[in-house]
Amino acid sequence: MTDLKKVDPVSEEGIGAIGIDLNTDHIACIETDRFGNPVDRKVIPWVSYGKSKGQLKGATGDICKQIVERAKQTKKPLVIEILDFKKKKIDDV
Length: 93
Hints:
- The chain has helices at residues 53-74, 85-92, and strands at 18-22, 26-32, 38-45, 78-80.
- The chain is α+β, with helices and mostly antiparallel strands.
- Helices cover 32% and strands 25% of the residues.
- The chain contains two helices and four strands.
- A four-stranded mixed beta sheet has the order 3-2-1-4, covered by helices on one side.
């Protein structure tokens, strides 16, 4: 078990957000303004083929660090959608 130190949020409300979309071969990020309009887009390659678990973990950590740094600079919250396809598969049967 690890004790985590509580940190104060650094994002601000009402200035937009940075959305993250995980795909099989890349991670897509889109930054929006306070109205939801896109102001920046980034596609970061995320290839797992031929990589060891350690290499993939390291590459993923590097990408996460890059995204978090952008969120800190802009003071925008990070948003990620959690998709659950298990229920859809059951409904399709």
